[in-house]
Amino acid sequence: MSRNSVWTKSLPRATDVSYLQIDRGALSMGWSRFARANRSLRTEEWGIGRQGGLRARLWSMTPPLLQQTSFRRFWTAQTISYFGDQITFVALPLTAVLALHANAAQVGLLSAAGSLPSLIFALHAGAFVDQFGRRRKMMILADLLRAALLLTVPITYWLGQLTIQHLYIVAFLTGSLAVVFGICANSLFVALVPRDDFVRGNSLVKGSYYLSWVAGPTAGGALIQAVSGPISILCDVVSFIGSALLLRSISPEEPPRIKAGRGHLSEGFLFIRRASALLAKFFIDASLNFFYTIYFTLLFLFAAKELRLSALAIGLVLAAGAVGAVVGSALTTRVSLRIGVGPAFLVGSFIYPGALVLAPIAGGPQWLAAGLLVIAEFTSGVGLMICDISGSSIQQALTPDRLRGRVQGAFMLFNNGFRPFGALLGGALGTWLGLRPTLWVASIGGVLSVMLILPSSIRRMRTLPEEADFPVVDSADA
Question: Is 270 exposed, middle or buried (0-12, 13-18, 19+ CB in 10 A)?
């Protein structure tokens, strides 16, 4: 008996192709050619593919969404862009310090220049995305423009013309384009991923985002050490070009453009106000960002001054948070399937700030204090991802295509808008109350804010809700 006949008799019974057809076809044309010609044969499940069993088994272990070409390229484009962003996050300020000898105030202004666009342009960018409609093309344009802007940094450095004002402009403009890219990506995600796979898709996208926070700055630091800050920015230029090429290779079916009318900018807020689950998420996102910023503002000072931890120990604490986020992204799908997507959002929302209670408890020997902070950051990172992924999936499921940009712009505005106030209040409370009491305020305040939304409809969501498409502008205002 031939090897092909032995294989066919060991195949699973559940197949659309008869054993006789498989046996004759495989014998006459060879198994690999036969499998290519009969795409209904799921060779990846049987462990026998074009390049042999190993490749087929590896392919069968790949998440189903990543087996879809369009989503795989979209996800890869975002992942490349995320890692490039983290390199620039390190390279721009270090370029200012090492090449231009910038002082603390100038580095602070450079950081502010990159974060201001989300406060200034988020609403307008969301409205523009809804009105223009061509999300993929706007993402490609944003990538290419960011590549061109960043390319000016090493060029002017080589020419001896680089200035701090130049870096301010580059940071502000690339930050503005990042806002447009992020809003478009949220809308394009929905065009590529089936509704039932929103949680799985968000787990992949947000998992790669937080993974970039672990590996990106490390890679950026190594590059800067090897080739200097301005030259390392070339890696981000390449990443944006690669992202643009990948996005160019997909062709999702996008929603039609909309006509702007009276109340166009405010429709995102009005929709959130009327959709109770979105309103609950909106409140939680803003409040948790606010209280976590209070905590994070004082974490370094608390760890270094009161706990006497070394720079290495503090770095391990931060790395634990990022690793926890990656683990959380892998767990979210299972958690949401077991307890429901709404309860998963609430559980994650409790764990995220609740774990931080361990920080003000930390004390005693340095190994014990560092261990408690590592546990706090790791567990908080897990909760953050469960909250973020399930919440984003609920938002995407509820929001109609015509409002996606404006709703995302509203969330972006408030998520980022509360952070400066949290930082200012954290500094003031740290001076007035002390570091440890302020950390208690931050962690307990976050938990109490979650308790306020327990009566909302979100706790009863076992599965993703249907799209809540209702009018948000009165007919008299239309």
Answer: middle
| 164 and 291 belong to one structural domain | no
Average pLDDT, stretch 382-406? 90
Q: Which residues contact 199 (CB under 8 A, 6 or more apart)?
A: 332, 333, 336, 341, 389, 390, 393, 464
| Secondary structure string (H, E, C) spanning the chain | CCHHHHHHHCCCCCCCCCHHHHHHHHHHHCHHHHHHHCCCCCHHHHCCCCCCHHHHHHHHHCCHHHHCHHHHHHHHHHHHHHHHHHHHHHHHHHHHHHCCCCCHHHHHHHHHHHHHHHHHCHHHHHHHHHHHCCHHHHHHHHHHHHHHHHHHHHHHHHHCCCCHHHHHHHHHHHHHHHHHHHHHHHHHHHHHCCHHHHHHHHHHHHHHHHHHHHHHHHHHHHHHHHHCHHHHHHHHHHHHHHHHHHHHCCCCCCCCCCCCCCCCCCHHHHHHHHCHHHHHHHHHHHHHHHHHHHHHHHHHHHHHHHCCCCHHHHHHHHHHHHHHHHHHHHHHHHHHHHHCHHHHHHHHHHHHHHHHHHHHHCCCCHHHHHHHHHHHHHHHHHHHHHHHHHHHHHHHHHCCHHHHHHHHHHHHHHHHHHHHHHHHHHHHHHHHCCHHHHHHHHHHHHHHHHHCCCCCHHHHCCCCCCCCCCCCCCCCCC
Q: Does residue 426 carry a pLDDT above 60? A: yes
Q: What is the CATH number of the domain that holds 154?
A: 1.20.1250.20
223 and 283 in one domain?
no
**Structural domains of the chain, count:** 2
Average pLDDT value for residue range 168-173 = 93
The per-residue pLDDT of the chain, averaged, comes to 80
Q: Indicate whether 301 and 384 sit together in one domain.
A: yes
pLDDT digits (tens, 9 = 90+) for 333-389: 999 999 999 999 999 999 999 999 999 999 889 899 999 999 999 999 999 999 999
Give first-to-last CA distance, the chain, whole Å: 76
Do residues 282 and 403 share a domain? Answer: yes
Q: Which residue, 189, 221, 251, sits at the end of a domain?
A: 251
pLDDT digits (tens, 9 = 90+) for 35-65: 444 444 444 443 444 445 666 666 666 667 7
Q: Cα angle at 429 between 423 and 434, to 5 degrees?
A: 120
Radius of gyration of the chain from its Cα atoms, rounded to whole angstroms: 25
Domain around 101: 65-251
